[in-house]
Design goal:
This protein is about 20% helix and about 50% strand. It has about 120 residues and is α/β, with parallel strands linked by helices.
């Protein structure tokens, strides 16, 4: 009985390793900013939380999890503009999949800190 459980655990571990499940990607960027500026997000997927702080900067921390191949299909970038900061998380995939059924393990969370007014 113990051998069967151990064998099943080894097979499950091998499957997760081969399929690339559990891969992570992190994005961390800061920009000098003053209160009253704008922050614009363009995101194909994920959730965003925004917090006001006393710092004079915009801080963006994005954590993405999923299969390695799914992580490689997303590009994240951020840049300073004349009015503030913009960021983009976009899917590079050329063709869309119906209802993102193939991305069921992909998750993205974007935490943003901006100066308070």
């Amino acid at each position: 009985m113990i051998r069967k459980k151990l064998f099943a655990l080894m097979i499950a571990t091998l499957c997760f390793t081969v399929l690339g499940l559990g891969a992570e990607k992190k994005f961390d960027k800061k920009f000098a900013a003053s209160p009253g500026g704008t922050f614009t997000v363009h995101a194909d997927v994920g959730n965003v939380s925004v917090e006001g702080t006393d710092a004079k900067e915009v801080s963006i921390v994005a954590e993405m999890r999923g299969r390695q191949r799914d992580l490689e299909e997303y590009e994240i970038s951020a840049w300073q503009t004349a009015n503030g900061v913009e960021m983009k998380l976009r899917n590079l995939r050329k063709s869309s999949r119906w209802f993102n059924w193939s991305d069921d393990g992909f998750d993205a969370h974007i935490a943003v800190s901006v100066p308070k007014e």
